[in-house]
């Protein structure tokens, strides 16, 4: 073979070798790339600890409860704080993790850790014992990172085992209309089913839909609208919060009871849950429609069907229940499951409350298939009439076993469509089961304009009460309910003398009239007793009404202030008042649960020495301006020389000594009920000492603390009011919040309270106020009794009625007095 051929063969072999090597390198690169991609995919599909904790927290806590939990957990990393803190805290409180823990948002959850969590959960909820059966994976590789699909499978298996009455996590289908920023600054999406928070929630569609082409991620801002606007979404939700999105829903969605502003040809302009929304119809409308309620069916973003609801009825609302409305002339009509309320006068809006203001006929009702589909509020409320729920004798109950009626003039009784006239000398007695009541609501009205209805079966402080307006009686399962409907101004005639002695004089009575009108107006619009067909009741829960009869002075005070109310920035305020101050009022947030800071209800020193030139007096004023300090408060209460506007009244100062056993018995009687009334404000110590900064208290059912070991003030608010009290017992230590709970649990039921006029008062079911300091009386280290020295009578917010008397005696007019107690307010008018 010649050299040329040899060289050719060598060259060919070299080329082949190069090609083989190149091919191997390329295959290796491709393999490495594929392996890296697979590793990346696996890494992306691993669930983090933080995300697992987030999902598990929903098994017990919704958004509101979770965010109200005090941060009891102590993180190993003291500076750590991130979006998952509240979820980790919730999981700790569920007893699933230890106290000292640091959680990175990207730290993976292992299979072993997951099983540890679920095993603890099973211990707490035995009903979940079968959760592992049927799971498509096992926990053998405990150190392996857990994949999101695995955790979601397990999570949904847990949800399937939970009883419906314990489950706060639900599958829902929502149609996305818009996005908004809530008052707390967090994003919400507006849907056909309401408004849902979604911050921290995930889009997990790729794990439910194999055809989904986008990666999973956390939902944020405008991205939500870009992806889901005008679409149906399948979600897992916990009340008003989306936990995660499962899929895009492609089926037909019917949105019920929509306000259709206009529909013409292919365009439908609607108003849904506060959102103005224009849709395209798939087919041209057969007729134009305008300002009507109807159901609309949507598919692929287009309207494919409309069912309008043209039938409307109107009448006075007598009662607004949870699932029905009683309308005069129509009786009780059930509400549709998707019942809506629209305000159609002025700027179109939706009312979020489920109730319609009783006693007025300003609303039209859309009725379909025997149910109310929507309420259309067509004009503003003039608030000229008020409805009062009447208690039995002694204000013990709202349900009456018997009602005996009389009158000062002839009167008529209406039941159904029948009407019977009675003379003034005739009486009518009704009991549950009476044939007259079987026909529905019984309405009694005097024939004469000056006539009054007498309730002979009730006693008040001045004897048999007489009522202006009309009386309505309905039969309920627990007995008979009585409602008195009358003009608001005439209602005030009988509120003023029941709330303030009329001998105080006209100017104080005018102050009381303006405040009482403001208070009544606010509660009338709040409609909080609509389930009973009323706006307020006649007890101290609202304003005492007709316990003492109206008189010339009270009528004159109301007439001279006709329609006048206390306003702040154009709104009628809740003009709270009480009997006697300790010399200082307090802020509203220290008295009522979740009370908001209101500028016109800020506590103030009611000093009669503000303008004194005395150096000593001015020094005291400076000290007494801060009564949150324990020493300052004690000095103030004991100071007999410093004058305030309430100094001369009997309840200005008081003292009581209560036996420790009496306190224990009283707590045992009331503790469970106070906890049930508001669990957040009776909390039990679960770790550390109560005096430690890191002491952890939790809301949990409690019926006793055992023998009393110690009672101490934890926190004072403006004016020295106690709003947190620690009670240590042999069985439990509790933290009591709100002045009412404190006054109830330390009530001197078997002790005598001595006022500064040295008169002893017995049988009080509440302490006079929460403005007091505590002295403990012990023998051989054991608590025998406590002595409470305090001041004032009532809650301490707003206006002191006895302080009003002093200011009026000093020559102040009613409007000046009102502006003194409610700073920054002015006098407004509620009638046109």
Automatic annotation (TrEMBL):
<dbReference type="InterPro" id="IPR013693">
    <property type="entry name" value="SpoIID/LytB_N"/>
</dbReference>
<keyword id="KW-0472">Membrane</keyword>
<dbReference type="InterPro" id="IPR051922">
    <property type="entry name" value="Bact_Sporulation_Assoc"/>
</dbReference>
<dbReference type="InterPro" id="IPR013486">
    <property type="entry name" value="SpoIID/LytB"/>
</dbReference>
<keyword id="KW-1133">Transmembrane helix</keyword>
<dbReference type="GO" id="GO:0030435">
    <property type="term" value="P:sporulation resulting in formation of a cellular spore"/>
</dbReference>
<keyword id="KW-0812">Transmembrane</keyword>
<protein>
    <submittedName>
        <fullName>Putative membrane protein</fullName>
    </submittedName>
</protein>
<dbReference type="Pfam" id="PF08486">
    <property type="entry name" value="SpoIID"/>
</dbReference>
<feature type="domain" description="Sporulation stage II protein D amidase enhancer LytB N-terminal">
    <location>
        <begin position="477"/>
        <end position="568"/>
    </location>
</feature>
<dbReference type="GO" id="GO:0030288">
    <property type="term" value="C:outer membrane-bounded periplasmic space"/>
</dbReference>
<feature type="transmembrane region" description="Helical">
    <location>
        <begin position="7"/>
        <end position="26"/>
    </location>
</feature>
């Amino acid at each position: 073979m010649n050299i040329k051929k040899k060289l050719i063969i060598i060259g060919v072999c070299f080329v082949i070798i190069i090609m083989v090597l190149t091919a191997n390198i390329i295959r290796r690169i491709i393999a490495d790339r594929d392996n890296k991609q697979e590793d990346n995919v696996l890494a992306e599909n691993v669930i983090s600890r933080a995300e697992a904790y987030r999902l598990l927290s929903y098994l017990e806590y919704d958004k509101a409860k979770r965010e109200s939990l005090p941060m009891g957990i102590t993180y190993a990393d003291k500076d750590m704080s991130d979006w998952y803190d509240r979820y980790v805290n919730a999981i700790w409180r569920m007893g699933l993790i230890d106290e000292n823990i640091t959680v990175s948002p990207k730290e993976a959850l292992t299979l072993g850790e997951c099983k540890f969590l679920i095993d603890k959960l099973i211990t707490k909820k035995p009903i979940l014992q079968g959760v592992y059966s049927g799971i498509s994976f096992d926990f053998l590789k405990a150190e392996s990172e857990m994949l999101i699909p695995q955790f979601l499978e397990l999570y949904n298996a847990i949800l399937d085992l939970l009883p419906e009455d314990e489950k706060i996590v639900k599958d829902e289908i929502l149609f996305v209309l818009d996005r908004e920023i809530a008052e707390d600054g967090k994003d919400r999406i507006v849907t056909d089913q309401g408004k849902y928070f979604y911050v921290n929630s995930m889009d997990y569609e790729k794990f439910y839909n194999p055809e989904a082409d986008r990666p999973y991620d956390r939902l944020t801002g405008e991205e939500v609208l870009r992806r889901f606007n005008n679409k149906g979404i399948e979600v897992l939700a916990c009340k008003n919060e989306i936990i995660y999105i499962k899929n895009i829903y492609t089926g037909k969605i019917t949105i019920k009871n929509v306000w259709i502003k206009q529909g013409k040809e292919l365009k439908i302009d609607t108003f849904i849950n506060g959102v103005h929304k224009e849709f395209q119809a798939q087919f041209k409308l057969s007729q134009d429609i305008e300002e009507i309620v109807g159901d609309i069916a949507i598919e692929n973003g287009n309207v494919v069907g409309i069912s309008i609801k043209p039938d409307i009825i109107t009448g006075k609302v007598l009662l607004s229940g949870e699932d029905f409305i009683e309308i005069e002339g129509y009786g009780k009509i059930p509400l549709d499951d998707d019942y809506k309320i629209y305000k159609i006068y002025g700027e179109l809006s939706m009312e979020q409350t489920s109730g319609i203001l009783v006693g007025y006929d300003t609303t039209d009702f859309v009725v379909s298939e025997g149910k109310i589909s929507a309420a259309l509020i067509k004009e503003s409320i003039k608030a000229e009439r008020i409805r009062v729920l009447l208690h039995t004798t002694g204000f013990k109950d709202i349900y009456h076993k018997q009602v005996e009626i009389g009158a000062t003039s002839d009167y008529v009784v209406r039941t159904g469509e029948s009407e019977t006239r009675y003379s003034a000398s005739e009486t009518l007695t009704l009991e549950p089961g009476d044939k007259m009541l079987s026909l529905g609501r019984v309405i009694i009205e005097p024939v004469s304009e000056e006539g009054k209805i007498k309730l002979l079966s009730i006693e008040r402080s001045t004897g048999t009460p007489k009522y202006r307006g009309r009386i309505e009686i309905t039969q309920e399962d627990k007995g008979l309910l009585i409602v008195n409907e009358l003009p608001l101004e005439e209602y005030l005639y009988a509120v003023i003398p029941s709330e303030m002695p009329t001998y105080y004089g006209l100017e104080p009575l005018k102050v009381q009239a303006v405040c009482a009108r403001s208070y009544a107006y606010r509660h009338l619009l709040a409609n909080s007793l609509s389930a009973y067909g009323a706006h307020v009741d006649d007890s101290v829960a609202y304003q005492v009404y007709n316990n003492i009869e109206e008189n010339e002075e009270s009528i004159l005070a109301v007439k001279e202030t006709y329609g006048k109310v206390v306003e702040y920035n154009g709104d009628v305020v809740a003009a709270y008042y009480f009997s006697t101050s300790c010399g200082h009022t307090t802020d509203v947030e220290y008295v009522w649960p979740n009370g908001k800071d209101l500028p016109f209800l800020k506590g103030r020193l009611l000093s009669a020495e503000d303008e004194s030139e005395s150096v000593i007096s001015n020094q005291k004023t400076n000290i007494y301006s801060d009564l949150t300090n324990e020493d300052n408060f004690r000095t103030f209460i004991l100071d007999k020389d410093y004058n305030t506007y309430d100094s001369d009244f009997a309840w200005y100062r008081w003292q009581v000594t209560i036996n420790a056993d009496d306190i224990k018995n009283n707590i045992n009687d009331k503790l469970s009920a106070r906890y049930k009334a508001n669990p957040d404000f009776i909390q039990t110590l679960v770790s550390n000492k109560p005096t430690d900064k890191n002491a952890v208290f939790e809301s949990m059912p409690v019926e006793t603390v055992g023998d009393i070991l110690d009672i101490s003030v934890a926190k004072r608010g403006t004016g020295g009011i106690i709003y947190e009290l620690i009670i240590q017992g042999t069985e439990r230590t509790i933290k009591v919040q709100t002045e009412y709970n404190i006054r109830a649990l330390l009530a001197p039921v078997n002790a005598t309270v001595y006022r500064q006029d040295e008169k002893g008062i017995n049988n009080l079911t509440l302490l006079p106020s929460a403005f007091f300091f505590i002295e403990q009386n012990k023998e051989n280290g054991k608590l025998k009794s406590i002595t409470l020295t305090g001041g004032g009578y009532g809650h301490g917010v707003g206006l002191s009625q006895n302080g009003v008397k002093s200011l009026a005696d000093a020559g102040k007019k009613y409007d000046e007095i009102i502006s003194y107690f409610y700073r920054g307010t002015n006098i407004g008018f509620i009638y046109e």
